[in-house]
Amino acid sequence: MRIAILPDDATIGKVAADLIEELYREKPNAVLGLATGSSPLSIYRELIERHQAGKLSFKEGKAFMLDEYVGIAADHPERYRNVIHTEIASHVDFPEGCVNGPDGNAEDLHAACAAYDQSIKDAGGVDLQILGIGSDGHIAFNEPGESLTCRTHVGVLTEQTRRDNARFFDGDIDQVPTHCVTQGLGTIMDARRLVLVAQGKGKARAIKELVEGAVSAKWPATIMQMHQDAWVLVDEEAASEL
Ligand code: GLP
């Protein structure tokens, strides 16, 4: 893993966007893995700016999202599909229908998960996966204790994650869905490059475990230590326990 401790969130966004720009320069039809949460927002701001400046185009590209809540209303602003549309997809030029996400409202969720996993493979796999990290070390929605090798699946959100995410639901944990569909750690590890970003003190313990801990399902992100091309971009606060 390459670890970079950077001065601020804006620099994290720039460094990650440099990697993405380089990818699309070399491979215009690259497949980008998109993450939700607040951590990647500085990356998305950079990508939008570079796109608007004519330096970066996704017009031959494709994207796959990591995860989605189960049973959230189609028009809910916190539905991850809507978040990705608002924060990045609607501002850049991915072709129509080329930003994909797992379907948390499918009638047969298990079949939808398997089909989603297959669609990533059919697209040739993810070239660069953007990742955030939960304060409990989860990536996507792979919570502590889950399999380190699983594929896209239905998951149960921990109380900690629901508490962390309540800020997006009027601060009310009861409004946060209890289940999710998420790429598994096996699916995520298939991406050719992983770029995890984290800011702030709240992530310091998880970053310590990710960088210095043993690979363990207790801290799901530690599986990244086994990846051949993983980048971890953090600010001073997130690095404060290293
Ligand atoms: C959610 C998402 C994760 C994200 C994490 C951290 O649970 N499913 O993909 O990495 O939250 O979110 P934030 O970046 O807002 O701290």
UniProtKB/TrEMBL annotation:
It catalyses: alpha-D-glucosamine 6-phosphate + H2O = beta-D-fructose 6-phosphate + NH4(+). GO terms for molecular function: glucosamine-6-phosphate deaminase activity; identical protein binding. Residues 15-229 form the Glucosamine/galactosamine-6-phosphate isomerase domain. Pathway: Amino-sugar metabolism; N-acetylneuraminate degradation; D-fructose 6-phosphate from N-acetylneuraminate: step 5/5. It is an enzyme of class 3 (hydrolase). Keywords: Carbohydrate metabolism, Hydrolase. Pfam families: Glucosamine_iso. Its EC number is 3.5.99.6. The active site is at D67, D136, H138, E143. GO terms for cellular component: cytoplasm. InterPro entries: Glc/Gal-6P_isomerase, Glucosamine6P_isomerase, Glucosamine6P_isomerase_CS, NagB/RpiA_transferase-like. One of its GO terms (biological process) is N-acetylglucosamine catabolic process. SUPFAM superfamilies: NagB/RpiA/CoA transferase-like. Belongs to the glucosamine/galactosamine-6-phosphate isomerase family. NagB subfamily. HAMAP family: GlcN6P_deamin. Catalyzes the reversible isomerization-deamination of glucosamine 6-phosphate (GlcN6P) to form fructose 6-phosphate (Fru6P) and ammonium ion. This is Glucosamine-6-phosphate deaminase. It comes from Gleimia coleocanis DSM 15436. The gene is nagB.
